[in-house]
Amino acid sequence: xxxxxxxxxxxxxxxxxxxxxxxxxxxxxxxxxxxxxxxxxxxxxxxxxxxxxxxxxxxxxxxxxxxxxxxxxxxxxxxxxxxxxxxxxxxxxxxxxxxxxxxxxxxxxxxxxxxxxxxxxxxxxxxxxxxxxxxxxxxxxxxxxxxxxxxxxxxxxxxxxxxxxxxxxxxxxxxxxxxxxxxxxxxxxxxxxxxxxxxxxxxx
Length: 204
Known about the structure:
With 204 residues, this protein is mainly α. The protein has helices spanning 2-30, 34-70, 74-101, 103-110, 114-129, 131-146, 151-175, 180-203. The protein starts with a helix and ends with a helix.
């Protein structure tokens, strides 16, 4: 039970930190008006949908890496992890292309309000940019769980989202006047930091 708590608590805190920063982003978007809040929700819906696949790939990677570690086969653990990374990046690259090439069509499926449409279309393009980073960090968290390393993932999310991403979101969104697009560029910056940190950690 002690070992389960040691491994499991950072996983829960990691999800709390990640979900929390996007919840805060929604609260910040609501201060910019109804159109910004609605556009934020449109982009979040599509981004969350694609991220579920990355999380699934991360869970599969966690299982396969855990099996390899359990039998003392480090090369297989490493191979399984990189296959998971490659699969996640491939899928999220495809979704990024869809977001970047067809933002107007995707937004029209969600709203017929011109003011929301005008804000949501460029927001979908930002969401497309951070798809790959979001996929890498989703898979990276999974494969690190496979080797029992869960605390680093929590701390990387804490630093990436709250020390780097959130201040940039506030600066871009409010100080520079970029609005909800600035908030999302801040989130994007935090995600890229987390993605790089998790890949570095696994490679190390």
